[in-house]
Design a protein that fits this description.
Blueprint lengths: L7 E3 L3 E5 L5 H8 L2 H6 L8 H19 L3 E6 L5 E8 L8 E6 L8 H15 L5 E6 L4 H9 L3 E7 L5 E8 L1
Antiparallel strand pairs: 1-2, 2-3, 3-4, 4-5, 6-8, 7-8
Helix pairs in contact: 1-3
Length: about 170
C-alpha cells in the first residue's frame, strides 16, 4: 500500500481508532446486535474471549499486514464506543472495501456518514487508493443509502466464498 499507517482519525464528533483487546466487550455487543445479525451475519462471537480473539486474529492482523483495518468509532465528547468503520482487504475482492456498523441506538444520527466520509478521505489522501468498493445485503436499505451518499455507485451483484449474493458498490477518482 502507498502511504502511511495511522493511529486515529478525528472528525467533528467522532474518533476512529484501532481496536485493542480491551474493546472485546463492545465488539461482543456490536456483533450480536439485531442489525448486525440481520445484515452481516452470525460470526459465532458469544463471549468476550471470542471477541478478543477476533480482534487479535482479524483486526490487529490487518493493521500489521495492510496498514489499515476496521476501527472502533467512539464519540469524541465522552469516549463512548458506538460502532466500527474502516477498510478491509478481502482475498475474495480485487479492491479494498469500506465497512461500517453501528449499534442500533446510534443509527440515523449522521455518525455513519461522518465516519465513512472520513475513512474514504483517509483512504484516498493517505493510502493513495483510487478505487474503493463496498458490499452490502440487497435488503440493507440504510447501508445502500449511506454508500450512495458517500459517492459510491452500484456496479454488480457478487458472491463471496459461497455466500448470498451481495451488491457491490464502487467509488473511483
Amino acid at each position: 500500500m502507498v502511504g502511511k499507517s495511522w493511529e486515529q482519525i478525528e472528525t467533528e464528533r467522532l474518533i476512529l481508532r484501532k481496536f485493542t483487546s480491551e474493546d472485546s466487550a463492545f465488539l461482543l455487543e456490536l456483533m450480536n446486535s439485531p442489525t448486525w445479525l440481520q445484515f452481516i451475519g452470525q460470526r459465532n462471537i458469544t463471549t468476550t474471549d471470542d471477541a478478543r480473539n477476533y480482534i487479535l486474529e482479524k483486526f490487529i492482523k490487518s493493521y500489521q499486514t495492510n496498514g489499515f483495518g476496521l476501527n472502533l468509532v467512539v464519540l469524541k465528547n465522552n469516549n463512548t464506543p458506538i460502532g466500527m468503520c474502516g477498510l478491509i482487504k478481502r482475498d475474495s475482492l480485487k479492491d479494498v472495501d469500506i465497512g461500517f456498523a453501528l449499534l442500533p441506538r446510534y443509527e440515523r444520527k449522521g455518525y455513519g456518514y461522518e465516519a465513512a466520509t472520513a475513512t474514504m478521505k483517509y483512504a484516498k489522501s493517505n493510502l493513495g487508493l483510487s478505487r474503493i468498493v463496498a458490499i452490502t445485503n440487497k435488503n440493507n436499505v440504510q447501508s445502500i443509502h449511506l454508500l450512495q451518499k458517500i459517492g459510491m455507485q452500484f456496479e454488480e451483484m457478487v458472491r463471496l466464498n459461497d455466500t448470498e449474493e451481495l451488491m457491490l458498490f464502487a467509488n473511483e477518482q
